[in-house]
Amino acid sequence: MMEIDGLRKSYGEKVALDGVTFTVGSGEMFGFVGANGAGKTTTMRIAMGVLEPDAGEVRFDGHRLGFADRRRFGYMPEERGLYPKMKIAEQIAYFGELHGLATAKARKSAADWLERLGLADRAGDHVQDLSLGNQQRVQLAVALVHEPEVLILDEPFSGLDPIAVDTMADVLAERNAAGVPVLFSSHQLELVERICDAVGIIADGRMVAVGSVGELRRKEGRRFLKVAVEDAPTGWADALPGKVVGNDDGALLIETDDDQAVLAGAVKAGRVTHFGWQEPTLVEIFREAVA
Q1: How far apart are CA 37 and CA 34, in angstroms?
Q2: Residues 137 and 201 reside in one and the same domain
Q3: How far is CA 128 from the centre of its chain?
Q4: Where is the ABC transporter domain positioned along the sequence (predicted)?
Q5: DSSP alpha helices (H): ranges in 48-203?
Q6: From the centroid of its chain, how far is CA 63?
Q7: How much is the pLDDT for 159?
């Protein structure tokens, strides 16, 4: 388990982090979301020891993080930390050795990850000759080559096409299944909603919502009844208990506490083709949380 506890960080009068606290458990995929400048990268850099907090600490399995712990972590910065004129396989193996792997094992692991990420045929190429998406795959291989106990990834899906996104998501899910805590930031909220066990929303250096997507839906967002009635007369919903708040492709979105009365009114109005609760998406929850 990795614990982020009360992190504070300021640059002069600019407060970058204001008591940031959350936990990423064993085998948990934690999506860290927020606008540009909200504090995501600063939090991750503190977790990796790149920055020192003004207050608070980061713990792993109950003790304060040290160099030996971080050496067992896998880190993927938003800015690619690769040597552009170094061959791909050599570079991945080199980073594996920096994390303590023997040379032979580092080379074997590098080859395995290149195969897994679909880059085996580019092993002898230089990083600068790859597309941005393939450079992102190499960066992920660098983060994974030493079989890390924790993964911290800053915008790992940035610049990837849909197939590459699926590949990376599958790899992270595999690491999760092996018990590895995964913390990653992303602006792709639909993806976060799809693959994450838990989500943290940060705004202006403060955590404004933390929990599973289901918990955040119940806590932070409203839910509506989505009702579609074929051949219903105009204004059929005017007398229903609640308030019509929108129209979704011909279906009414109704905010109400009496779903049975709405159903009875819909049946009376015509043939009901859709009836069910519609919960807010993570995008809607994000907008409400940071407002």
Answers
A1: 8
A2: yes
A3: 27
A4: 2-229
A5: 67-71, 88-98, 103-116, 132-144, 162-177, 189-195
A6: 25
A7: 79
Pair 255, 242: CB distance under 8 Å: yes
Q: How far apart are CA 173 and CA 276, in angstroms?
A: 31
For helices 162-177 and 132-144, the axis angle rounded to 10 degrees is 10
Same domain (yes/no): 11, 57: yes
Answer for the pair 231, 44: CB distance below 8 angstroms, yes or no: no
- Of 193, 217, 241, the one marking the end of a domain is 217
Per DSSP, 267 falls in state: H
Mark out the alpha helices in 63-102 (DSSP H runs). 67-71, 88-98
Q: Which two tokens stand for residue 9?
A: 């960080």
Judge if 228 and 112 occupy the same domain: no
> Per-residue pLDDT tens for 169-191?
999 999 999 999 999 999 999 99
Count CA atoms within 13 Å of residue 148 on its CB side.
29
* Paired tokens of 51: 């920055």
Separation between Cα atoms, residue 33 and residue 56, nearest integer Å:
21
Domain assignment of residue 260, given as a range: 219-290
CB of 36 within 8 A of CB of 203?
Answer: no
What b-and-e string marks burial along 89-128, b requiring 16 or more CB atoms within 10 Å of the CB? bebbbbbbbebebeeebbbebbeebbebbebeebeeebbe
Q: What is the pTM of this model?
A: 0.82
State yes or no: pLDDT of 220 exceeds 70.
no
